[in-house]
Amino acid sequence: MGTYNWYENLIKPSWAPPSYLFGSVWSILYLIIFASFGTVFYQVAIGRIPWMVALPFVLNLVFNAAFSPLQFGLRNNLLASIDIILILITLIWAMIAIWPYLRWVTYISIPYLLWVSFATILQVSITYLNR
Questions:
Q1: Residues with Cβ < 8 Å from 99, sequence gap 6 or more?
Q2: Distance in Å from the first CA to the final CA of the chain
Q3: The whole model's pTM is what?
Q4: Contact indicator for 115, 29 with CB cutoff of 8 Å
Q5: What is the phi/psi pair of residue 71, to 5°?
Q6: Residue 128 region, left (φ>0) first, then alpha (ψ -120 to 50), else beta?
Q7: pLDDT, tens digit, for every residue of 25-71?
Q8: Stretch 64-85: mean pLDDT, rounded?
């Protein structure tokens, strides 16, 4: 069974959005992430922000990159749930860490935070329904 069929056959909550919506939302969010995280990494590179401030941003990218391989490659809902919780935690940490330096990064990350919060609830629900 292909990855698409596997995901489509999972039990999902009635409020789950259609699969095609995820690509559109993530396309917009990746632009926000590129601009905001890129600015943070640049500011760290030129010494305006301590490197420890970038740590949650780096971890967030690592966990974000791991999600699809865990969910769709390994087809492991539990690991994907743990991963998306880590994405949410590192995003909140990043938003708090950058606040004293670049408040606009915190503000522009709000759509990402809202989507990841929703996606976390969705993924945990899917994991529970398909246990």
A1: 106
A2: 19
A3: 0.94
A4: yes
A5: -75, -50
A6: alpha
A7: 999 999 999 999 999 999 999 999 999 999 999 999 999 999 999 99
A8: 97
